[in-house]
Amino acid sequence: MRLDKVPIELLTPGQSQPFGIWEQPNRFCFHESIDPEMWFAFAPREASNPLFVHIGKQARVKLIEQLGGVYYHVHEQASLFHVQTFHATTLVMELDSHAQIQHALYGTLSSDCEITTRVHLNATGASIDWNEGISIEGNHTYRTTMALHHRAPQTRSHCCLRTVIWETGTLQGIYEGYVEETASQSVLHQQNTNYILHPKGHACMLPHMWIAHKNVEASHGTATEPFPEEAIFYLQSRGFSAQDAQKTYLQSFLQAPFAGYSEFPLETLEAKPEICPPVATSSR
Fold first, then answer.
1. Which residues contact 119 (CB under 8 A, 6 or more apart)?
2. Predicted confidence (pLDDT) at residue 1 exceeds the cutoff of 90
3. Residues 250-263: tens digit of each pLDDT
């Protein structure tokens, strides 16, 4: 994510804001029915002091997240476009009736990162699309824990995580989807796909679902694979060099979860110097 390429409105405690109001130093409320063109970001703060963010009814807010702990309450018919930076973060998200969240985490991980998220779909029609496309470099680890609670009828969640592990990097993830007895006709899908491009790379994603209602549509899965050499061969047959073929394919692979979401400003992946040797296929 190239934040320097995106116009951002920085929200700082104590300053007057036309888009919302600071109720106290750690609580910001966006006004109802706002639909601004710019992205917002909050001024950095201590991780031990979480920020409480309320998205007003029918508001449309675009936020770049760079804090250590945030509690979001997305009110009725509001929408939140949420871009996460590679920052150790704990998120709690509460969604009211027909509230929507579209989330993106995209780019190259060049240091260890851990993100813990709890999402509560509290009312009919609430929905969340959670998409991540992550390139893990060096001996770094990405840890992610997602707990999704469907508490009301006709709620929907879709989580897609794609990673490329270049060297001795590691993905460690847990996905937990809960559907309560009151959440009939809910839909929840989770998908994880990883390409490991080095023999010492590692990926472990553990999906779990607890479903207490029969009238539910649900699926989950995870796959860890070596790089598909047939893709390189196909692109080279169309005139690409090996390096450009690898770059093009992996860029497309990581950006695929965001297809249709023009709201998210995604950067172009840098070309890698060579194709790493394939490793044995495995799945978890």
1. 92, 93, 95, 101, 128, 130, 146, 147, 148, 149, 157
2. no
3. 888 888 888 877 77
* Greater model confidence, 225 or 268: 225
Tokens of 160: 């897609």
The H or E element spanning position 22 is: strand 20-24
Q: How confident is the model at residue 273 (pLDDT cuts 50, 70, 90)?
A: very low
Cα(88)–Cα(143) distance, integer angstroms = 9
Phi and psi at 246, nearest 5°, equal: -65, -45
- Cα 273 to chain centroid distance, Å, stands at 28
Classified as helix, coil or strand, 210 is strand
Domain membership flag for residue 203: yes
pTM of the model: 0.88
Taken in order 165, 65, 131, 145, is the CA torsion positive or negative? positive
Residues 162-197 have pLDDT tens digits of 999 988 999 999 999 999 999 999 999 999 999 998
The closest alpha carbon to 248, from 261, 259, 260, 234, belongs to 234
What CA–CA distances, in Å, run from 241 to 167, 197, 233, 255, 272? 22, 18, 10, 21, 12
Q: Which amino acid is it at 229?
A: E
CA 182/CA 173 separation, integer angstroms: 28
* Residue 277 domain-assigned (yes or no): no
CB atoms closer than 10 angstroms to residue 76:
17
Residue-number span of the structural domain to which 168 is assigned: 3-258
**Domain count for the chain:** 1
Residue 269 belongs to some domain of the structure: no
Q: Beta-carbon neighbour count of residue 113 at 10 Å?
A: 20
Contacts of 272 (CB under 8 A, 6+ apart): 166, 243, 246, 247
In a domain, residue 263? The reply is no
